[in-house]
Design brief:
This protein is mostly helical. It has 1 helix and no strands.
Length: 142
C-alpha cells in the first residue's frame, strides 16, 4: 500500500509537473500570440496613421492650391472690374459726345433748311423781279 501510495504520489507529482509545464507553455504561447496581436495592431495603427498623415498633407496642399487659385481669380476679377469701369466711363463720354453731335447735326440741318428756304425765297423774288423788269422792258421800247 505504501508503494502504491508512493507510486500514486509520484504519478500525481509527474502529472502536476506536466500540467505546470503545459500551463507554462500555454501561457508562453498566449503571451507570444498577444504580443504578436499587439504588434500587428500597432503596425496597423502606424500604417493607418501614416495614411491619415499623407491624406492630411495632400488636403493641405489642395487647400494651398485652392487659396492660390482663389487669390489669382480675385486679382483677375479686380483687373476685369477696373476694365469694365473704364469702359463704362468711356461709354458715358461717348454717349455725351453722341448727344452733343446729334444736337449739332440737328442745328446744322435746321440751318440748311432755313438756307434752302431763303434760297427759294430769293429765287422767287428774282423771278418776280425778272418778270416785272421783263414786262417793263417789253412795254417801254414800244
Amino acid at each position: 500500500a505504501k508503494a502504491l501510495k508512493e507510486a500514486r504520489e509520484a504519478s500525481l507529482a509527474e502529472l502536476r509537473r506536466q500540467h505546470d509545464e503545459g500551463r507554462a507553455a500555454a501561457a508562453a504561447d498566449a503571451e507570444r500570440e498577444l504580443a504578436a496581436a499587439i504588434s500587428h495592431q500597432e503596425s496597423g495603427f502606424e500604417v493607418e496613421r501614416a495614411g491619415l498623415e499623407e491624406r492630411a498633407h495632400a488636403a493641405e496642399e489642395e487647400l494651398a492650391a485652392a487659396r492660390e487659385a482663389a487669390a489669382e481669380a480675385k486679382a483677375e476679377c479686380e483687373v476685369r472690374q477696373r476694365t469694365l469701369d473704364r469702359m463704362a466711363n468711356e461709354l458715358q463720354e461717348r454717349r455725351a459726345l453722341g448727344r452733343a453731335l446729334a444736337l449739332e447735326a440737328d442745328r446744322a440741318h435746321s440751318r440748311k433748311l432755313k438756307a434752302e428756304a431763303e434760297a427759294r425765297e430769293l429765287r422767287r423774288q428774282k423771278a418776280s423781279l425778272e418778270r416785272v423788269l421783263g414786262g417793263a422792258e417789253g412795254a417801254g421800247p414800244q
